[in-house]
Amino acid sequence: MEGWSLLKHRLAVALIIAISLVYLLPIVWIGVTSIKPRELMTKPDVIAFKPTLEHYERLWIVKAGRGETERVVGRSDYPRHFSNSLIITALSTLLAVTLGTLAAYAFSRFKVKGKTDLMFFILSTRMLPPVAVAIPIYLMYTKFLGWYDTRIGLIVLYTVFNLSFAVWLMKGFIDEIPKDYEEAAMVDRLSRFKAFIKVVLPQSVTGLAATAVFCAISAWNEFAFALFLTQDKARTAPPSIPSAIGTAGIEWGQIAAGTFLFLLPVALFTFIMRNHLLRGITFGAIKR
Questions:
Q1: Considering 40, 75, 110, which residue would you say is the last residue of a domain?
Q2: Could you tell me if 69 and 93 lie in one domain?
Q3: Does position 204 have pLDDT exceeding 50, yes or no?
Q4: Do the domain assignments include residue 281?
Q5: Are residues 108 and 95 in the same domain?
Q6: Distance between CA atoms of 14 and 17, rounded to whole angstroms?
Q7: 75, 103, 136: which is the final residue of a domain?
Q8: Among 77-86, 189-198, 247-256, which stretch is predicted with the lowest mean pLDDT?
Q9: Domain residues for 49?
Q10: Which residues, 6 or more positions from 225, have their beta carbon under 8 angstroms from its beta carbon?
């Protein structure tokens, strides 16, 4: 029995390693491509080469010419688009989690007329394909609100689209927190809002972290609206990266470098939140 258990353990470890390699292969490929010389871009079978950082350099400056005639002609738009992604993702995630937590608390603790129908209506907004409302939102942003090519436009849009997800996710977490804790706090003359701040929020940190990670990933990777509703000023990194076209055609090395840098912030954020995220996903799995 011990030998069979050891064999099953080793097979499970081997399977996990194999699956991890499959998932990591595209990231490794992008990383390798980002440091491969330009003359080897059309030779994917070449593995041994001298690494170069020229593609990362071209993310910050624009060069013209080749070889000895190469010269700097300006600054790249990538840093500005990258900072737009950071600002828009951070603010939209903060708003979505804040508003979603307040709404989830109301649905969880108060008797709301038609609660089931309202929750279904909130969830149904996630079923709508974004492309289905792209044209109406474009017309609304250009003709009425004046939010075309503005950060506020994308922040509000991403907040609205992530809000339903935040409400549903946070309601599940708050439902698992016993009401007795809040009632005891209110007996000690705390208001409902103070009981929410001092009792409910500290116990729902795992839920807040999990919700923030999923909302941040959704906003960070969004492509369609960022392409339709921005031109240059508020454009984010996703639609900016594929547009790297130089004098020699599509700059695959520059695209790979931009993509690799684009992966780092959300990966770092998820890594920092990993402990809370794991507890948040499994929170409420066991019913008392």
A1: 75
A2: no
A3: yes
A4: no
A5: yes
A6: 5
A7: 75
A8: 247-256
A9: 1-75
A10: 130, 134, 137, 154, 157, 158
* Together in a domain, 83 and 184: yes
Answer whether 152's CB lies under 8 Å from 110's CB: no
User: Are residues 83 and 49 located together in one domain of the fold?
Assistant: no
pLDDT above 50 (res 288)? no
If one counts the domains in the chain, the total is: 2
Answer whether 162's CB lies under 8 Å from 215's CB.
Answer: yes
Burial class (CB in 10 A: 0-12, 13-18, 19+), 109: middle
Q: Which residue has the tokens 């399977």?
A: 15
Q: For residue 95, what is the domain's CATH number? A: 1.10.3720.10
Whether 91 and 234 map to the same domain: the answer is yes
Alpha helices in the chain (DSSP H): 2-34, 54-57, 78-109, 115-124, 134-139, 151-175, 179-187, 192-195, 201-203, 205-221, 224-228, 237-240, 252-272, 274-282
pLDDT tens digits, 62-78 = 766 565 566 666 677 88
Q: CA–CA distance from 241 to each of 59, 78, 121, 134, 262 (Å)?
A: 10, 8, 36, 21, 9
First to last CA, the chain: 34
* DSSP H or E segment with residue 245: strand 245-246
